[in-house]
Specification:
single chain, 24% helix, 42% strand
Length: 147
Amino acid sequence: MKLAVFAFVLCTLPALADELPPDLAQAMKVYDEGQFHNDVPTLERLVADDYVLVNSDSTLQNKQSFLADFRVPGFRLDPYVMEQRVAKVWGGAAVMAGLVRLSFTQDGKRQTRRLRLVHVWAKRDGRWQVTHTQLTRVPDAADAPDG
């Protein structure tokens, strides 16, 4: 079973939120809180039915698999800080990206991953939903090759 540790949230800072359409900034904030609190009904509303998650190990998850991860007893995603933020909005589409150090609890064990992530959002029927997430694992500086 894949857990949602590889799919994640884009925490918005006030500066970034000021650059976004207000309804998108609000949707992102609610999405983040939904993940941090394992709020499956909220996530179900904000994740598109055709959602695709590409995990950092290149496995794929759909919406139902992604939501199931948040129902696993003991799973908890910690809030984090997004670095190197990128936000692009084109009418009813948006790409949000950045670098995070994701910490979580899974099967009673604390784990941490450094990830580059990209979320693709689409405005459908007047509301924003995340449609795609792509994650790439980043080695810690000590593990990175020279050069």
